Protein 1
Amino acid sequence: MHTQVTEFRRTALTALLDRVVWNTPVIDIHTHLYDPLMGGLLLWGIDELLVYHYLVAEAFRRIETPYENFWRLTKTEQADIVWNELFVKHSPISEACRGVLTTLHRLGLDPRQRDLALLRKWFAQWDQERYVNRCLELANVRTVYMTNSPFDDAEHSVWQKGFLRDERFVAALRVDPILVNWPEAGAKLRQWGYEVSEGFSRHTISEIRRFLADWSHRIKARYMMVSLPPEFTCDETSDCASLIRGAVLPHCRDFNMPFALMLGVKRAVNPGLQLAGDAMGRSDLSTLAHLCANYPENRFLVTVLSRENQHELCVLARKFRNLHVFGCWWFTNVPVLIEETTRMRLELIGTSFTAQHSDARVIDQLIYKWEHSRKVLAKVLLDKYSDIAAAGWEPTAAEVERDVKQLLGGAFEEFLKTATE
Ligand code: HDL
Ligand code: ZN
């Protein structure tokens, strides 16, 4: 009898989770998408999907073409090579290839026709506005957090000109150059009228904070973010430590915003691959523990690139309530690691984290990145709810809805609000 009841419960839970996980709108807290009105910065369509740097990296494993020859081609010619190498000559079985298939399938297209020209014709009939709406609808994404860098020339001028904001696209202020290459970033700030010098005099620090304040206001930033290499430490000597301690954390406190740390990226390990040339490494998370412990009035949003760091990050989240764990970032955004990481997080920190972010660069990708992640989340939650149901705690539909909302951005929004108290 007990087994039958468990099977019955499992079946009922499966149906409930399928409904709830798919019907809960997502707050996508980290992407490289842009507001549709940011003058052509937003990418969409089949050729952009195919030249996504994840696919370019995989295509280069199949061709002898010198890197610079590939980059001289048009996007259409690059997409032709990717399509031919990864979809026609070999099965599109990698997560990034599968993503293109899921996207096309959900859009109602049949990729088995293997006819790229036909696909291009279909995309050509859409205008950006209608297509953006279609992608957000199919992905069931309510809010898209952008990555906004004043150091990106194209983006810098768009913000200076100003544009009518689409409230579905909200801003996050990205400041990598300040923390990882201060001399170059300092020169840019001087160019923009901020009186900063190489050393970190009181005046320089106050001018950096003025810069951060100006841009936080300009873009209405909800949080600040930076990606850092595995060797990042916050010991007394480094430029990075002086800037984080002296400028970034006080700024975040003044503006009541979390500071997002994305740890473990090794930039340009193979520069010939351009955006696809970055790799990763295991970070020393004692620096993160030091920041959380010594700056309790700051709040830290953290994701890590190394699978080996995930467990320690969960344990730190148990120690520090000002640490919010989010997403399966980049090389960990594959079903095998999403499942392991999500299971670990639920078992160590309950629902007090953000299960995923898409990191999408092409708006069509929202469709597959959220389909694939929702599938894994529903599978893991089925196990975890079955475990507590077997102990007599049958979750109600309302409780499951509450929990899934938490995991798909609700916990993040609470973390943001807490920051404003
Ligand atoms: O630094 C980042 O925000 C990373 O997400 C990089 O942009 C990376 O190129 C990427 O797109 N990963 O998904
Ligand atoms: Zn990113």
Note: The first helix runs from residue 2 to 23.
Protein 2
Amino acid sequence: MRKPFIAGNWKMHKTVAEALELADGLRESLADVATMDIAVCPTATALHAVSEALAGSNIGVGAQNMYWEEQGAYTGEIAPPMVKELAQYIIIGHSERREYFGETDETVNAKIKAALAHGLTPIVCIGESLEQNEAGETVSFVRSQIHGAFAGLSASDAQKLVLAYEPIWAIGTGLTATPESANATIRTAIRDVLKALYDEETAEAIRVQYGGSVKPNNMAEFIVMPDIDGALVGGASLTVEAFSGIIKNAVAALNG
Ligand code: PEP
């Protein structure tokens, strides 16, 4: 049984003071949620403060990016042991990083291996562009991303990953995939490939979030889909009201 997992990606938003205000509000608002894993992913500058503010709570902390080397002359980068001091999760291969910062399936794979070596849980983002979607290339493209991300990973390592299926055209646009089409893509482009690469147990063990304009009013329809195990939320993770609304509506949908 996969435990649902909803994570907020704060992207390049929030000063430390603003991040703390949001973290404190979420801690209070979500204190009663026990049936779901929750995490927030602040900017690197706010990680320390937010991880202290959420210590001992039911909300985990993730970073948004890191390099794969242990340390060294890599100006501006953050190493896995540095992330590990402050976070449990690490977002890897977000489409914005692939688009603006040159991340490839190879760098994503290197980061996944580094994260696992340091006991971090990777949240690995995959998903097709609008052009690929319209050309009917979604399944083949997402399958190729899965092959790239999992290259060289054992089944037991593979099971430690969380995947976020995020159609790029749905990120920050207000557009969403239909729950049915997102579920079908996750089944055919992700779980079927994982079953072929590993085995059924591995394919069914890995949690897959949906991402792309998730809001309080549409979370329920995604979370009830059999292959969708939660969400990676961008814009609607930036206020207490919206992010806790998403989580409470997910809990209610699964209970009802
Ligand atoms: C994201 O950036 O991962 C995301 C899904 O953003 P949004 O919820 O704003 O579409």
Note: The chain has a mean pLDDT of 97.
